[in-house]
Amino acid sequence: MQPTVQICSLAILFAFIFQVNGNSTILLKPIQITERRNYKNSINFQSYHIKQQQPRGYMIHGHSEEFVKLPGLTMTFQHIMPVLYKIRFEGTCFSTHSSQIWLYLRLMINDYLFYVDKFVPNAADRYRYFRGDTGNDGIDYVGGLYFYSTSPTVTTCGFSNIVSLNPGFHIIDIGARSGYLMYGAFPVQVIGGILSVEAIQFDTDANIGIPTLNILKKDGICVSQQTVSNIKRNIGLQRNSVEKIRFSWQRPVATPSTVLKVHKLTSSNAEKRRRRALRLYRQLANNRYKNFITTDESWFYLDGTEGKRKVCYIKKSDPDYDRMILQQDSSRPQGFMLWVGISSYGKTSLRFVKPGVKINSDYYINNILKPFLSRDVPRLFSNKKKNKLIFHHDSAPSHISKKTIAFLNASKINYVKPEEWMPKSPDAAPMDYSIWGYLKQQLNKQKIESLNVLKKKLLHEWTKMDQAYIDRVLAHWPKRVFLIHKAHGFHVEHRLKL
Ligand SMILES: *[C@@H]1O[C@H](CO)[C@@H](O)[C@H](O)[C@H]1NC(C)=O
Ligand SMILES: *[C@@H]1O[C@H](CO)[C@@H](O)[C@H](O)[C@H]1NC(C)=O
Description:
Protein name: Transposase
Bound molecules: 2-acetamido-2-deoxy-beta-D-glucopyranose
Helix content: 25-40%
Strand content: 25-35%
Number of helices: 11
Radius of gyration: 26 Å
CATH topology of the largest domain: Jelly Rolls
Signal peptide: 1-22
Largest sheet: 7 strands, antiparallel
Mean pLDDT: 74
Organism: Rotaria magnacalcarata
Distance between the termini: 55 Å
CATH class of the largest domain: Mainly Beta
Structural class: alpha+beta
CATH architecture of the largest domain: Sandwich
GO molecular function: nucleic acid binding
Keywords: Signal
Number of domains: 2
Number of strands: 20
C-alpha cells in the first residue's frame, strides 16, 4: 500500500471519529503509534472514548429474556474502513436482598447482541442460533457478564470484547437482563457503569471481520427515527437530509432454505401476535382447522450463482422481497410468482403469474380469487362444508387493500380479516412453515434449466404432494399458534420437524 494513501485515509477516519462524539463523551487524545508499518494487520493508531452510565443507577426489575439497554451509554461511530475495537464495560452490580438474582450484561451493536464471534438478534428465542442450546441461560454467561447472588451483594462487574466492525455507522450499547423466570423475578441494579471504546486497529487490508449471521438484514436493525437524527447531527448532516444512514451488514447470500428467518418483532407486534394467536387458536382448535383453506404466493426463481442452477424462493415476508422484484423488473426475468393453497379436503390448482410480474390487488382479485372461488372452492368443498369454510391468506398489501376486502365481503366467503391475522408471522402460516420449503427442497434435487421446466416440475411436485403430508402440516397449525401465544407473541421455531 502506498504510504500517502494510507495517511490520507487515516486522516479521514480520524475526522469521523472526532465528529461522532456527542458532548457527553469524554474524548481522550488519540494515542497515535508513530511507527507505521506497511504489512497487514499492523496497528496504525489508537483512539479512546469513554461514556458514563446516566443516571448512575439503573434498576432491572425482574425477569426478562431480552436485553434492555443501560441508559446513557449509547455511543455511535462511523468509519469508512474496517476498524478493530476493544470495548469494555465496568460497573458495579448491586443486589439488596437475599433472594436469588441472576444478571447478564452483554455488548450490543446496532441492536444485536454480540456473542464472541457472532451477532444474534435480541429476541427471546435467540438460543436457537447456538447448536444444541435450549434456553438463553445456557448461552448468556459466555463472553459477557454473568452475576449470580443469593444475598445482599455489591460487586464490580465488567467484561470486555474485541470486535471488528465493517465500514458504516455503528451504535454501541450495553444490554442487561435478569433471569431465571422460574425462580421468581427480583430486582437487581447496575450502578456507576463506564463504557470505554478503543479503536485499536485500522488497516485497509485487514481481513479480521467477524462473520455476521445471515439474519443480519437491514430491516432487522431497528433504530428509532430519533437515533437516526442524532447520528445525522453527529456527523454533520442536516436532520432532515435525505441522505440515508447506511448500515454495514452484508446482504445474505444463502438461499432461504438455509437461512433461519427471524423478523425483529417490536413489542407491539409481539403483543398483537400474543392476543391474535389466542383468538386464532380458538378458531383452529378441536379439529376446526379442517374448515380452513390457507393460501399464499411465493416467488420462485432460478439462481445460477453456484455453477449449477438452483431454484430459490422468496417470501413476501422477506426483507429482500422488493429488491428481488426490482431486479426482476429491470433485467431479464428469471422467476415468477406462484399462488397455491391447501386444505384438509385437498389442494388448489397452481396459479402462475407472468414472469417478473408482482401481484397487485386487481391481479389478485381477477386472476387469483375469482378462479379460486369459482373453481377450487366448489371442487374441494361440498355445499355443506362450504358454509363453514374459512379462507386464510396473510396480510400482504394486495390481500388487505380496500378493493380486495370489498371483493371478499361481496363474495360472502368467510375469511381471516386483516385485523385478525398476526403481523410478521411466517411461523404461523402453514404455507410458510412447511409447504414452500418442501417444494423447494424437492425442486433442488433436480436439474432445472429454464423457467418452463421449473413450471413443469412445480406442477409435477404439486400433484404428487401427498394429502397425508398436508394433513400433518395442518394438524400442527393450532399447536403452533398456541405456542406463539404461550411465547408472549415471540417467534416459535419456523421449521418444526413434521
Ligand atoms: C453539552 O450540551 C448541553 C446542551 O446542548 C450544554 O448545555 C452543555 O454545556 C454541554 N456540555 C459540554 C461539556 O460541552
Ligand atoms: C368488509 O366487511 C367488514 C365486516 O365483516 C367491514 O368491517 C368492512 O368495513 C368491510 N370492508 C369493505 C371494504 O367493504
